[in-house]
Design a protein that fits this description.
The chain starts with a strand and ends with a helix. Helix 3 packs across helix 4. The protein is of the alpha/beta class and 479 residues long. It has two domains: 230 residues, Nucleotidyltransferase, domain 5 (2-Layer Sandwich); 207 residues, 2-Layer Sandwich (Nucleotidyltransferase, domain 5).
Protein backbone atom coordinates (compact mmCIF):
# COMPACT_ATOMS: atom_id res chain seq x y z
CA UNK A 1 0.00 0.00 0.00
CA UNK A 2 1.17 3.55 -0.76
CA UNK A 3 2.62 5.70 2.01
CA UNK A 4 0.62 8.52 3.68
CA UNK A 5 0.53 12.10 2.37
CA UNK A 6 0.51 15.29 4.43
CA UNK A 7 -1.48 18.35 3.40
CA UNK A 8 -0.66 21.79 4.79
CA UNK A 9 -3.73 24.04 4.54
CA UNK A 10 -3.18 27.71 5.40
CA UNK A 11 -6.41 29.70 5.44
CA UNK A 12 -7.19 33.23 6.55
CA UNK A 13 -7.91 32.56 10.22
CA UNK A 14 -6.10 29.29 10.81
CA UNK A 15 -3.67 26.68 9.51
CA UNK A 16 -4.07 22.92 9.68
CA UNK A 17 -2.01 19.90 8.76
CA UNK A 18 -3.77 16.65 7.88
CA UNK A 19 -2.17 13.29 7.14
CA UNK A 20 -4.14 11.01 4.82
CA UNK A 21 -3.72 7.28 4.39
CA UNK A 22 -3.55 5.85 0.88
CA UNK A 23 -7.20 4.78 1.18
CA UNK A 24 -8.26 8.36 2.01
CA UNK A 25 -8.70 7.97 5.76
CA UNK A 26 -7.50 10.79 8.02
CA UNK A 27 -4.66 9.42 10.14
CA UNK A 28 -3.81 12.56 12.08
CA UNK A 29 -4.36 16.30 12.12
CA UNK A 30 -3.57 19.51 13.98
CA UNK A 31 -4.80 23.10 13.85
CA UNK A 32 -3.62 26.53 15.00
CA UNK A 33 -5.28 29.93 14.80
CA UNK A 34 -3.64 32.69 12.76
CA UNK A 35 -3.58 36.31 13.89
CA UNK A 36 -5.24 39.07 11.88
CA UNK A 37 -4.45 42.77 12.37
CA UNK A 38 -6.58 45.74 11.35
CA UNK A 39 -4.20 48.72 11.73
CA UNK A 40 -6.57 51.07 9.87
CA UNK A 41 -10.19 50.87 8.70
CA UNK A 42 -9.17 49.79 5.20
CA UNK A 43 -6.28 47.52 6.13
CA UNK A 44 -6.04 43.78 6.87
CA UNK A 45 -2.60 42.43 7.67
CA UNK A 46 -1.00 39.17 8.77
CA UNK A 47 2.51 38.03 9.67
CA UNK A 48 4.55 35.79 7.35
CA UNK A 49 6.61 34.55 10.31
CA UNK A 50 3.34 33.56 12.00
CA UNK A 51 2.44 31.65 8.82
CA UNK A 52 5.78 29.82 8.95
CA UNK A 53 5.90 29.08 12.67
CA UNK A 54 2.29 27.96 13.02
CA UNK A 55 2.69 25.79 9.91
CA UNK A 56 5.70 24.04 11.40
CA UNK A 57 3.85 23.50 14.67
CA UNK A 58 0.81 21.88 13.05
CA UNK A 59 2.91 19.67 10.77
CA UNK A 60 4.93 18.39 13.71
CA UNK A 61 1.77 17.94 15.79
CA UNK A 62 0.02 16.03 12.98
CA UNK A 63 2.99 13.66 12.75
CA UNK A 64 2.82 13.13 16.50
CA UNK A 65 -0.95 12.57 16.30
CA UNK A 66 -0.43 9.97 13.59
CA UNK A 67 2.46 8.24 15.32
CA UNK A 68 4.53 8.05 12.15
CA UNK A 69 7.79 9.71 11.25
CA UNK A 70 8.51 12.14 8.45
CA UNK A 71 10.39 9.40 6.59
CA UNK A 72 7.09 7.48 6.38
CA UNK A 73 5.42 10.21 4.31
CA UNK A 74 5.12 9.97 0.55
CA UNK A 75 4.80 13.74 -0.06
CA UNK A 76 3.49 17.10 1.11
CA UNK A 77 0.86 19.21 -0.65
CA UNK A 78 0.54 22.93 0.14
CA UNK A 79 -2.83 24.69 -0.06
CA UNK A 80 -3.27 28.34 0.93
CA UNK A 81 -5.48 31.39 0.88
CA UNK A 82 -5.07 33.28 -2.38
CA UNK A 83 -4.43 36.91 -3.31
CA UNK A 84 -2.75 37.87 -0.02
CA UNK A 85 0.74 39.25 -0.65
CA UNK A 86 4.07 38.38 0.95
CA UNK A 87 7.32 40.28 0.29
CA UNK A 88 10.68 38.94 1.44
CA UNK A 89 14.43 39.31 1.00
CA UNK A 90 15.92 36.57 -1.19
CA UNK A 91 19.23 36.85 0.65
CA UNK A 92 18.01 36.51 4.22
CA UNK A 93 14.69 34.78 3.63
CA UNK A 94 13.07 37.28 6.01
CA UNK A 95 9.81 39.17 5.36
CA UNK A 96 10.13 42.80 4.37
CA UNK A 97 6.61 43.93 5.29
CA UNK A 98 3.42 42.66 6.88
CA UNK A 99 1.38 40.33 4.70
CA UNK A 100 -1.30 42.38 2.93
CA UNK A 101 -4.48 40.32 3.30
CA UNK A 102 -6.80 39.54 0.43
CA UNK A 103 -9.58 41.55 2.17
CA UNK A 104 -7.36 44.65 2.43
CA UNK A 105 -8.79 47.75 0.73
CA UNK A 106 -5.91 50.25 0.92
CA UNK A 107 -5.68 50.30 -2.88
CA UNK A 108 -9.35 51.22 -3.43
CA UNK A 109 -8.53 54.63 -4.92
CA UNK A 110 -6.18 52.99 -7.42
CA UNK A 111 -8.80 50.35 -8.25
CA UNK A 112 -11.41 53.05 -8.91
CA UNK A 113 -8.94 54.88 -11.15
CA UNK A 114 -8.36 51.70 -13.17
CA UNK A 115 -12.08 50.98 -13.38
CA UNK A 116 -12.63 54.47 -14.79
CA UNK A 117 -10.23 53.43 -17.56
CA UNK A 118 -12.43 50.40 -18.29
CA UNK A 119 -10.26 47.79 -16.59
CA UNK A 120 -12.18 45.11 -14.62
CA UNK A 121 -10.05 45.29 -11.45
CA UNK A 122 -11.12 44.81 -7.83
CA UNK A 123 -9.44 45.13 -4.45
CA UNK A 124 -9.38 41.36 -3.91
CA UNK A 125 -6.71 40.67 -6.54
CA UNK A 126 -3.02 40.85 -5.65
CA UNK A 127 -1.92 43.17 -8.46
CA UNK A 128 -2.62 46.52 -6.78
CA UNK A 129 -1.19 45.18 -3.51
CA UNK A 130 2.06 44.26 -5.27
CA UNK A 131 2.06 47.73 -6.85
CA UNK A 132 1.51 49.43 -3.49
CA UNK A 133 4.40 47.55 -1.88
CA UNK A 134 6.85 48.26 -4.68
CA UNK A 135 5.90 51.96 -4.77
CA UNK A 136 5.26 52.79 -1.12
CA UNK A 137 7.14 50.46 1.24
CA UNK A 138 10.70 51.54 2.08
CA UNK A 139 11.93 48.04 2.91
CA UNK A 140 10.61 46.67 -0.35
CA UNK A 141 12.12 49.57 -2.30
CA UNK A 142 15.48 48.86 -0.65
CA UNK A 143 15.29 45.19 -1.63
CA UNK A 144 14.56 46.20 -5.23
CA UNK A 145 17.66 48.41 -5.26
CA UNK A 146 19.75 45.47 -4.01
CA UNK A 147 18.21 43.00 -6.46
CA UNK A 148 16.84 40.85 -3.65
CA UNK A 149 13.05 41.24 -3.77
CA UNK A 150 10.79 38.21 -3.80
CA UNK A 151 7.01 38.58 -4.06
CA UNK A 152 4.32 35.96 -3.89
CA UNK A 153 1.10 34.66 -2.48
CA UNK A 154 1.27 32.51 0.69
CA UNK A 155 1.80 29.26 -1.25
CA UNK A 156 4.99 30.73 -2.72
CA UNK A 157 6.30 31.82 0.67
CA UNK A 158 5.61 28.47 2.36
CA UNK A 159 7.03 26.37 -0.49
CA UNK A 160 10.14 28.57 -0.56
CA UNK A 161 10.58 28.05 3.19
CA UNK A 162 9.85 24.31 3.17
CA UNK A 163 12.48 23.70 0.50
CA UNK A 164 15.12 25.82 2.20
CA UNK A 165 14.88 28.47 -0.51
CA UNK A 166 15.35 26.04 -3.41
CA UNK A 167 11.87 26.50 -4.90
CA UNK A 168 10.41 29.86 -5.94
CA UNK A 169 7.22 28.65 -7.62
CA UNK A 170 3.46 28.94 -7.76
CA UNK A 171 0.75 27.23 -9.80
CA UNK A 172 -1.92 28.62 -12.15
CA UNK A 173 -4.68 28.46 -9.52
CA UNK A 174 -2.89 30.92 -7.24
CA UNK A 175 -1.27 32.93 -10.05
CA UNK A 176 -4.70 33.41 -11.62
CA UNK A 177 -5.93 35.27 -8.54
CA UNK A 178 -3.16 37.89 -8.74
CA UNK A 179 -4.48 39.81 -11.75
CA UNK A 180 -1.07 39.41 -13.42
CA UNK A 181 -1.61 36.00 -15.06
CA UNK A 182 -2.89 35.19 -18.54
CA UNK A 183 -4.98 32.05 -18.13
CA UNK A 184 -5.10 31.48 -21.89
CA UNK A 185 -1.32 31.36 -22.40
CA UNK A 186 -0.61 29.93 -18.94
CA UNK A 187 2.07 32.49 -18.11
CA UNK A 188 2.56 35.93 -16.59
CA UNK A 189 0.90 38.68 -18.63
CA UNK A 190 3.54 41.20 -19.68
CA UNK A 191 1.06 44.04 -20.25
CA UNK A 192 -0.31 43.64 -16.71
CA UNK A 193 3.20 43.45 -15.29
CA UNK A 194 4.03 46.74 -17.01
CA UNK A 195 0.77 48.39 -15.90
CA UNK A 196 1.46 47.62 -12.24
CA UNK A 197 5.21 48.31 -12.38
CA UNK A 198 6.27 44.72 -11.79
CA UNK A 199 9.38 42.83 -12.89
CA UNK A 200 9.17 39.13 -13.74
CA UNK A 201 12.27 38.50 -11.64
CA UNK A 202 10.35 39.47 -8.49
CA UNK A 203 7.67 36.85 -9.13
CA UNK A 204 7.76 33.04 -9.02
CA UNK A 205 7.90 30.54 -11.83
CA UNK A 206 4.47 29.11 -12.68
CA UNK A 207 4.57 25.30 -12.59
CA UNK A 208 1.98 22.52 -12.64
CA UNK A 209 -0.21 22.13 -9.60
CA UNK A 210 1.12 18.60 -9.04
CA UNK A 211 4.78 19.09 -9.98
CA UNK A 212 7.35 17.97 -7.41
CA UNK A 213 9.55 21.05 -6.98
CA UNK A 214 11.95 20.00 -4.23
CA UNK A 215 12.42 18.36 -0.86
CA UNK A 216 11.92 19.76 2.63
CA UNK A 217 15.23 20.61 4.23
CA UNK A 218 16.32 17.91 6.66
CA UNK A 219 16.39 19.96 9.86
CA UNK A 220 12.63 20.59 9.65
CA UNK A 221 11.49 17.01 10.20
CA UNK A 222 14.61 14.84 10.29
CA UNK A 223 13.87 13.51 6.80
CA UNK A 224 13.49 15.07 3.37
CA UNK A 225 9.92 14.93 2.04
CA UNK A 226 8.93 15.72 -1.57
CA UNK A 227 6.91 18.94 -1.91
CA UNK A 228 4.65 17.61 -4.62
CA UNK A 229 1.69 19.99 -4.96
CA UNK A 230 0.49 23.53 -4.43
CA UNK A 231 -2.89 25.16 -5.08
CA UNK A 232 -5.25 27.91 -4.07
CA UNK A 233 -7.73 26.83 -1.44
CA UNK A 234 -10.83 27.05 -3.63
CA UNK A 235 -9.34 25.04 -6.46
CA UNK A 236 -8.02 22.41 -4.06
CA UNK A 237 -11.54 21.97 -2.69
CA UNK A 238 -12.84 21.54 -6.25
CA UNK A 239 -10.22 18.86 -6.91
CA UNK A 240 -11.14 17.04 -3.71
CA UNK A 241 -14.80 16.97 -4.72
CA UNK A 242 -14.12 15.78 -8.25
CA UNK A 243 -15.39 18.75 -10.28
CA UNK A 244 -14.35 17.39 -13.67
CA UNK A 245 -17.39 18.08 -15.87
CA UNK A 246 -18.45 21.38 -17.40
CA UNK A 247 -21.17 22.84 -15.18
CA UNK A 248 -20.06 21.08 -11.99
CA UNK A 249 -20.20 23.61 -9.14
CA UNK A 250 -18.84 23.90 -5.61
CA UNK A 251 -19.22 26.58 -2.97
CA UNK A 252 -16.80 26.82 -0.06
CA UNK A 253 -18.32 28.48 3.00
CA UNK A 254 -15.26 29.75 4.82
CA UNK A 255 -14.16 33.23 5.90
CA UNK A 256 -15.57 34.23 2.54
CA UNK A 257 -17.86 32.18 0.31
CA UNK A 258 -16.48 31.25 -3.08
CA UNK A 259 -18.52 29.54 -5.77
CA UNK A 260 -16.60 27.85 -8.59
CA UNK A 261 -18.27 26.44 -11.72
CA UNK A 262 -16.17 24.27 -14.02
CA UNK A 263 -15.88 25.49 -17.61
CA UNK A 264 -13.70 22.68 -18.94
CA UNK A 265 -10.29 22.74 -20.60
CA UNK A 266 -10.49 26.20 -22.20
CA UNK A 267 -10.52 29.59 -20.47
CA UNK A 268 -13.72 31.52 -21.26
CA UNK A 269 -15.01 34.97 -20.35
CA UNK A 270 -16.88 35.05 -17.05
CA UNK A 271 -20.18 36.90 -16.52
CA UNK A 272 -19.90 40.51 -15.29
CA UNK A 273 -18.90 40.64 -11.65
CA UNK A 274 -17.39 37.15 -11.73
CA UNK A 275 -13.99 36.11 -13.04
CA UNK A 276 -12.42 33.29 -15.01
CA UNK A 277 -9.63 31.39 -13.27
CA UNK A 278 -7.51 28.30 -13.76
CA UNK A 279 -8.67 25.35 -11.67
CA UNK A 280 -5.42 23.44 -12.00
CA UNK A 281 -2.67 22.33 -14.34
CA UNK A 282 -1.89 18.62 -14.01
CA UNK A 283 1.42 17.18 -15.14
CA UNK A 284 1.41 13.62 -16.49
CA UNK A 285 4.30 11.15 -16.36
CA UNK A 286 4.93 11.64 -20.09
CA UNK A 287 5.35 15.39 -19.61
CA UNK A 288 1.98 16.39 -21.07
CA UNK A 289 -0.28 18.75 -19.15
CA UNK A 290 -4.03 18.90 -18.58
CA UNK A 291 -5.51 22.34 -17.89
CA UNK A 292 -8.89 23.01 -16.31
CA UNK A 293 -10.67 26.33 -15.78
CA UNK A 294 -13.64 27.77 -13.91
CA UNK A 295 -15.75 30.85 -13.35
CA UNK A 296 -15.76 32.11 -9.77
CA UNK A 297 -17.91 34.44 -7.71
CA UNK A 298 -17.27 35.79 -4.22
CA UNK A 299 -19.16 36.70 -1.07
CA UNK A 300 -16.40 38.61 0.70
CA UNK A 301 -17.65 38.09 4.26
CA UNK A 302 -19.46 34.84 5.04
CA UNK A 303 -17.87 33.03 7.98
CA UNK A 304 -16.25 36.37 8.81
CA UNK A 305 -19.73 37.74 9.53
CA UNK A 306 -20.36 34.89 12.00
CA UNK A 307 -17.01 35.57 13.67
CA UNK A 308 -18.01 39.24 13.89
CA UNK A 309 -21.18 38.20 15.74
CA UNK A 310 -18.98 36.32 18.18
CA UNK A 311 -16.58 39.24 18.57
CA UNK A 312 -19.36 41.67 19.50
CA UNK A 313 -20.99 39.23 21.91
CA UNK A 314 -24.17 38.34 20.00
CA UNK A 315 -23.09 34.72 19.44
CA UNK A 316 -21.07 32.63 21.86
CA UNK A 317 -20.24 29.14 20.61
CA UNK A 318 -20.68 28.85 16.84
CA UNK A 319 -22.22 25.43 17.45
CA UNK A 320 -25.27 27.25 18.88
CA UNK A 321 -26.08 29.25 15.76
CA UNK A 322 -28.46 26.71 14.17
CA UNK A 323 -30.60 26.49 17.29
CA UNK A 324 -30.61 30.28 17.62
CA UNK A 325 -31.55 30.77 13.96
CA UNK A 326 -34.36 28.24 14.24
CA UNK A 327 -35.68 29.99 17.36
CA UNK A 328 -35.47 33.47 15.82
CA UNK A 329 -38.43 35.09 14.13
CA UNK A 330 -38.04 36.09 10.45
CA UNK A 331 -37.98 39.73 9.41
CA UNK A 332 -34.45 40.90 10.23
CA UNK A 333 -32.45 41.42 7.03
CA UNK A 334 -28.65 41.54 7.04
CA UNK A 335 -26.41 42.51 4.12
CA UNK A 336 -23.08 40.71 4.71
CA UNK A 337 -20.88 43.44 3.23
CA UNK A 338 -18.49 43.98 6.13
CA UNK A 339 -15.63 44.36 3.64
CA UNK A 340 -17.54 45.37 0.53
CA UNK A 341 -20.11 43.63 -1.66
CA UNK A 342 -18.69 41.00 -4.01
CA UNK A 343 -20.13 39.23 -7.05
CA UNK A 344 -21.91 40.38 -9.12
CA UNK A 345 -21.84 43.96 -7.83
CA UNK A 346 -18.14 44.30 -6.88
CA UNK A 347 -19.05 47.38 -4.85
CA UNK A 348 -16.12 47.96 -2.50
CA UNK A 349 -17.75 50.98 -0.85
CA UNK A 350 -20.86 49.12 0.38
CA UNK A 351 -20.95 48.30 4.09
CA UNK A 352 -22.87 45.71 6.07
CA UNK A 353 -26.28 46.63 7.44
CA UNK A 354 -29.22 45.34 9.45
CA UNK A 355 -32.81 46.36 8.81
CA UNK A 356 -36.15 45.24 10.15
CA UNK A 357 -35.08 45.74 13.77
CA UNK A 358 -37.69 46.31 16.45
CA UNK A 359 -38.03 46.32 20.22
CA UNK A 360 -38.73 42.60 20.02
CA UNK A 361 -35.46 41.85 18.17
CA UNK A 362 -33.05 39.71 20.15
CA UNK A 363 -29.87 37.74 19.60
CA UNK A 364 -31.72 34.87 17.91
CA UNK A 365 -33.17 37.18 15.27
CA UNK A 366 -29.76 38.75 14.61
CA UNK A 367 -28.13 35.33 14.13
CA UNK A 368 -30.97 34.23 11.85
CA UNK A 369 -30.65 37.43 9.83
CA UNK A 370 -26.90 36.96 9.35
CA UNK A 371 -27.23 33.34 8.21
CA UNK A 372 -30.09 34.26 5.89
CA UNK A 373 -28.07 37.14 4.42
CA UNK A 374 -25.15 34.80 3.73
CA UNK A 375 -27.50 32.33 2.02
CA UNK A 376 -29.04 35.10 -0.10
CA UNK A 377 -25.63 36.31 -1.21
CA UNK A 378 -24.59 32.75 -2.08
CA UNK A 379 -27.78 32.49 -4.15
CA UNK A 380 -26.65 35.67 -5.95
CA UNK A 381 -23.49 33.80 -6.95
CA UNK A 382 -25.45 30.79 -8.19
CA UNK A 383 -27.66 33.05 -10.33
CA UNK A 384 -24.67 34.92 -11.76
CA UNK A 385 -22.84 31.71 -12.70
CA UNK A 386 -26.00 29.91 -13.89
CA UNK A 387 -25.64 27.03 -11.44
CA UNK A 388 -28.46 24.50 -11.58
CA UNK A 389 -28.89 20.92 -10.44
CA UNK A 390 -26.37 19.85 -7.83
CA UNK A 391 -24.24 22.18 -5.72
CA UNK A 392 -21.32 20.73 -3.75
CA UNK A 393 -20.65 22.52 -0.45
CA UNK A 394 -17.72 22.49 1.96
CA UNK A 395 -15.94 24.82 4.39
CA UNK A 396 -16.28 25.43 8.11
CA UNK A 397 -19.65 27.19 7.82
CA UNK A 398 -21.05 24.10 6.06
CA UNK A 399 -21.50 22.66 9.55
CA UNK A 400 -24.64 24.81 9.75
CA UNK A 401 -27.53 22.65 8.55
CA UNK A 402 -29.87 25.66 8.86
CA UNK A 403 -27.69 27.58 6.39
CA UNK A 404 -27.43 24.64 3.97
CA UNK A 405 -31.20 24.16 3.94
CA UNK A 406 -31.68 27.87 3.28
CA UNK A 407 -29.08 27.68 0.50
CA UNK A 408 -30.99 24.82 -1.13
CA UNK A 409 -34.28 26.72 -0.74
CA UNK A 410 -32.97 29.93 -2.32
CA UNK A 411 -31.00 28.38 -5.19
CA UNK A 412 -33.35 25.52 -6.01
CA UNK A 413 -30.26 23.29 -6.14
CA UNK A 414 -29.75 19.95 -4.46
CA UNK A 415 -27.01 20.73 -1.93
CA UNK A 416 -24.35 18.03 -1.57
CA UNK A 417 -22.33 18.66 1.62
CA UNK A 418 -18.85 17.20 1.77
CA UNK A 419 -18.56 14.40 4.33
CA UNK A 420 -15.65 16.35 5.80
CA UNK A 421 -16.22 20.08 5.59
CA UNK A 422 -12.54 21.00 5.21
CA UNK A 423 -12.09 19.70 1.65
CA UNK A 424 -9.18 22.02 0.93
CA UNK A 425 -6.72 19.88 2.87
CA UNK A 426 -7.89 16.72 1.12
CA UNK A 427 -7.47 18.47 -2.22
CA UNK A 428 -3.83 19.27 -1.44
CA UNK A 429 -3.13 15.64 -0.62
CA UNK A 430 -5.07 14.40 -3.66
CA UNK A 431 -3.05 16.68 -5.96
CA UNK A 432 0.22 15.50 -4.42
CA UNK A 433 -0.81 11.88 -4.94
CA UNK A 434 -1.04 12.51 -8.72
CA UNK A 435 2.48 13.98 -8.98
CA UNK A 436 4.73 12.11 -11.43
CA UNK A 437 7.54 12.71 -8.92
CA UNK A 438 5.77 10.66 -6.25
CA UNK A 439 5.27 6.90 -6.49
CA UNK A 440 1.94 5.47 -5.38
CA UNK A 441 -1.78 5.42 -6.00
CA UNK A 442 -4.22 8.36 -6.35
CA UNK A 443 -6.21 9.34 -3.28
CA UNK A 444 -9.82 8.12 -3.64
CA UNK A 445 -12.58 10.74 -3.68
CA UNK A 446 -14.88 10.67 -0.63
CA UNK A 447 -18.62 10.15 -0.91
CA UNK A 448 -20.74 13.24 -0.10
CA UNK A 449 -22.92 13.33 2.99
CA UNK A 450 -26.71 13.11 2.73
CA UNK A 451 -28.05 15.50 0.10
CA UNK A 452 -30.32 18.41 1.04
CA UNK A 453 -33.35 19.03 -1.18
CA UNK A 454 -35.05 22.43 -1.57
CA UNK A 455 -38.11 22.80 0.66
CA UNK A 456 -39.49 26.00 -0.93
CA UNK A 457 -41.73 25.84 -3.98
CA UNK A 458 -40.86 27.91 -7.04
CA UNK A 459 -43.26 30.76 -6.20
CA UNK A 460 -41.98 31.14 -2.63
CA UNK A 461 -38.39 31.01 -3.87
CA UNK A 462 -39.07 33.67 -6.49
CA UNK A 463 -40.73 35.92 -3.90
CA UNK A 464 -37.82 35.55 -1.45
CA UNK A 465 -35.24 36.32 -4.11
CA UNK A 466 -37.19 39.28 -5.49
CA UNK A 467 -37.53 40.78 -2.01
CA UNK A 468 -33.78 40.37 -1.47
CA UNK A 469 -32.87 42.07 -4.74
CA UNK A 470 -35.21 44.95 -3.94
CA UNK A 471 -33.65 45.29 -0.48
CA UNK A 472 -30.11 45.34 -1.87
CA UNK A 473 -30.99 47.98 -4.41
CA UNK A 474 -32.74 50.20 -1.89
CA UNK A 475 -30.46 49.89 1.14
CA UNK A 476 -27.03 48.88 -0.17
CA UNK A 477 -26.52 49.81 -3.80
CA UNK A 478 -28.72 52.89 -4.02
CA UNK A 479 -30.56 54.32 -7.02
Amino acid sequence: MSAPIMSLDLGTTGVRAVIFAADGRVLGHAYQRLALAFPAPDRVEQDAIDFRDRSLEVMQAALADTGCGAADLRAIGVVTQRSSVVAWDSGTGQPLAPVIGWQDRRTLARVEELRAMGLPVNTLASCTKFEWLTREHAGVRSAIARGRLRLGTPDVWLTHWLTGGDAFVTDPSSAGATGLFDAGSGSWFDAAMELFGQERAWHPQVVASNETVGLTYRSLFGARIPVAARAGDQQAACFAQGLNTVGDAKITLGTSAMLDRSTGSVATDAPPGAYDLPLWRLLAADGSVDNAFCHEGTVITAGAAVEWLQRIGVLGDAADMDAMAAAGQPGVVFVPALAGLGTPHMADQVRGSFSGLGLETGRNELVRGVLDGIAQRCADLAETLDVTGNLHVDGGLARSTWLLQRLADLTGCVVLPAREVESTARGGAALAATSPGVAGDPLPAPEPAAEIEPALDDDARSDARSAWRDHLQRWALGP
